[in-house]
Amino acid sequence: MRLILPAILDGYQRRKDKSVSLRFVTQEKSSHEIAEIDSLTDEFGILYFRSGDGPLEDTEEIDAIDLDEYDTRKTQSQRLRAVLYCLWKQEGEPGPWTDFYKNKTQKIIEHFKSKLED
């Protein structure tokens, strides 16, 4: 989903992990527009801020950016664990989470072990 709207960079805050928290202010928004913004909470994306007038010529280049290359908030093992947790929830929490996790990761391990040459 894309979110393009006029905004004012209202401020920023440096964080101890060397990242920066940015704060933008928009004009009034309808309930529908606010719902769209809310749906993007905790999503990873690209922020493009341009001051001044002119056409949005860079949007195709921005859309072509591979977000997986930059989304390093989680390690691959953390991402796998999160996906398995969502699957456990989706399946109605069939038994304890720890048992589910061990069972699924064991199946993954066995799958790839079977591909190894002796």
**What is the total number of structural domains?**
2
Report the radius of gyration as a whole number of Å. Answer: 21 Å
Spatial ordering of strands, largest sheet = 1-2
Strand content: 5-15%
**Shape designation:** elongated
User: What is the end-to-end distance?
Assistant: 47 Å
Q: Biggest sheet, in brief?
A: 2 strands, antiparallel
Question: How would you portray this structure in words?
Answer:
The protein has 118 residues and is an alpha+beta fold. The protein folds into two domains: 7-69, no CATH class; 76-113, no CATH class. Helix content is 39%, strand content 13%. It contains four helices and two strands, in the order E-E-H-H-H-H. It has helices at residues 31-39, 59-63, 76-90, 97-113; strands at 7-14, 20-26. It has a two-stranded antiparallel sheet with strand order 1-2. A hairpin with a 5-residue loop joins strand 1 and strand 2 (20-26). Helix 3 crosses helix 4 (97-113).
